[in-house]
Amino acid sequence: TVEGMDARVSGFRVGDEVVVSTGLGGALAERAVVSALHVARKPSNLSFEEAAAIPAAGQTALQALRDQAGLGAGQRLLVNGAGGGVGTFAVQIGKILGAHVTAVTSAAHRDLVLGLGADEVIDYAVSDFAANGELYDVIVDCVGNAPFERAAASVRPGGALLLVVSDRKGLFGAARQSRASGKVVSAASVPYTPESMAALSRLAGSGVIRPVIDRTYPLADI
Q1: How far apart are CA 151 and CA 139, in angstroms?
Q2: Which of 56, 95, 106, 180 is 20 to 30 A distant from 82 in Cα terms?
Q3: pTM of the prediction?
Q4: How many CB atoms lie within 10 A of CB 93?
Q5: What angle do CA 191, 140, 190 make, to 5 degrees?
Q6: Closest-CA residue to 140 (of 214, 192, 70, 44)
């Protein structure tokens, strides 16, 4: 909730309920000072807890699929770790962009990801997506267990492998792997933008996407 602002800020008032992107590090505090460029109005249909789930995970998924991969209608997307924070947004955003979405997750999260719009579900305890011969236009790894060496063969020529979670080898090897394979390999995060934050706020406000809350904690327990 806005408690005060610089005189140069426009478009907000004291008392407005907002959702804020504080960057990759996040914030755990009762109050924070942030740039007005990283603030969007909180959709009235969301609780504060739901709104707080949007900035980091939602923007990571949106920018990976839309901006880095250029995912489009009719393409095939595989989300590895579809039941997690970034994964639940990636499934929903993939459907919004018109893709056929395959979700890799645990059996416990099967109904969840189907409810978010996944077309197919692979239980990682039963089947290895990287060994079933299927090809995808975009694979987004939200877990960190699908590096280039394992997953690249499952990406179509000209497709994209997006490593949301990666080790040092994956981070520094992505550019070289891209050149050698002819596929987009990215392990770098994209800076969060006011546009992406506003877009996610609109989508959540219209009910097109919904944040998934696993659990909440009192600030004293953080």
Answers
A1: 8
A2: 180
A3: 0.93
A4: 28
A5: 5
A6: 70
